[in-house]
Amino acid sequence: MPMMANNIYPIKTEHSNELHKGILASIPIFIGYIPVAITFGLLAKATGLTLLESFLFSALVFAGASQFMALQLMSLGVAHLQIIAITFIMNFRHFLMSSYLSTLFPTHEHHWLPFISFGITDESFAYFSTQKQNQGKHFILGLQYSAYASWVGGTVIGYLFGAIIPPIIQASMGITLYALFIALLIPEVKKFYPAAIIAGIGGLTHSFLTWLKVFSPGWNIIIAIFSAAILGALLMGKDEEEVQ
Amino acid sequence: MNVILLIVGMMVVTFFPRYLPFVTISKWNLPGFVKKFLRFIPYAALGTLILPGAVMAIPGFPWAAIVGIIAAILFSWFRREIILTVVISIFAAYLVLYLSGY
């Protein structure tokens, strides 16, 4: 049936095209994850985990900071239930990020939602929330799971081969993910000036709380994002009413 | 085996905060203020993720990190190329490390 063929073929290529675009867009995240994942792999080995356990850490949890925290607490002999509780608070910032993305993503894709949710990290969130032109599920999954492959692959490489990146390159690459966040934020600031104020409030609040050391790092992030976004809603609300 | 249980526990408590908003919030009719609040989360989160972490991105060499940050800000201000921005920022940090005899 030529009619069907005509209908199906372009849709298929469009999908693989979207997937391809997602994978391309993930390149900075892919590059940024590698040195961090390698470090995680070699630290996991040093902590006494098996290769399988190290692999499962990255493959099932997929949340960098909390994985490093878990290694540290395990070596201190902290109870597992307590580590899980701290992980919950540490990664709860993703609740705020997912809340935003739920207003953006194709939430009717029930079957894919668990996979899309699992793939949400600080970096993929930063990308999706600023680059709004591509929000199809193929693009989303392509970006997320390319980054995932880098994280899981880097962990295994780090476990097996240790620090294979020369120290000076490894150290320089520490800036990668921050450069990505900046590259995503600056165009937003140029489009919408108050974005700089909200981001500044978030960054300064987080810096202050980090210096203060009253709450745990997980709480610091949640409080900083929450208070900056609330202030934004309060301050900009007036602006919008004036415009209308 | 105990470690596997820890990993599964960490997976569960990490996954659900990522997942729940998609099956709840997306179905709710949110009041205006909450919508506004959500709209500002990306900027708030980006700022929070950048500071203070970026300054401490290269342990022991804050200046290498700061030069890398400045390079990223300047370049992305003039050209909207994410990958190039990242590469230039890494290179700028590398130069500072190299010159300070890392």
Q: What does this entry look like structurally?
A:
The complex is a heterodimer of chains A (244) and B (102). Chain A has 244 residues and is an all-alpha fold. Helices cover 81% and strands 0% of the residues of chain A. Chain A has helices spanning 2-25, 27-47, 51-61, 64-75, 80-91, 93-101, 113-118, 122-130, 137-161, 167-172, 176-191, 194-212, 217-243. In chain A, helix 1 crosses helix 9 (137-161), helix 2 (27-47) runs antiparallel to helix 3 and helix 4 runs antiparallel to helix 5. The N and C termini of chain A lie far apart (53 Å). Residues 1-6 of chain A have low confidence and may be disordered. Chain B is an all-alpha fold. Chain B has one domain. Chain B is built from four helices and no strands. Chain B starts with a helix and ends with a helix. The interface between A and B is large, with 97 and 72 residues. Chain B: The chain crosses the membrane at residues 6-25, 61-78, 83-101. Chain B: It comes from Candidatus Atribacter allofermentans. Chain B: Keywords: Membrane, Transmembrane, Transmembrane helix. Chain B: This is Branched-chain amino acid transport protein (AzlD). Chain B: InterPro entries: Brnchd-chn_aa_trnsp_AzlD (IPR008407).
Quaternary class: heterodimer
* Overall residue-averaged pLDDT value of chain A: 90
Q: How many whole angstroms does the radius of gyration of chain B measure?
A: 20 Å
The global form of chain A is globular
The overall average pLDDT of chain B, rounded, is 94
Order of helices and strands of chain B: HHHH
What is the helix tally of chain B?
Answer: 4
Largest sheet geometry of chain B: none
Uncertain runs of chain A: 1-6
Number of domains of chain B: 1
Structural class label of chain A: mainly alpha
**Computed Rg of chain A:** 20 Å
Keywords (chain B): Membrane, Transmembrane, Transmembrane helix
InterPro entries (chain B): Brnchd-chn_aa_trnsp_AzlD (IPR008407)
Pfam families (chain B): AzlD (PF05437)
Protein name (chain B): Branched-chain amino acid transport protein (AzlD)
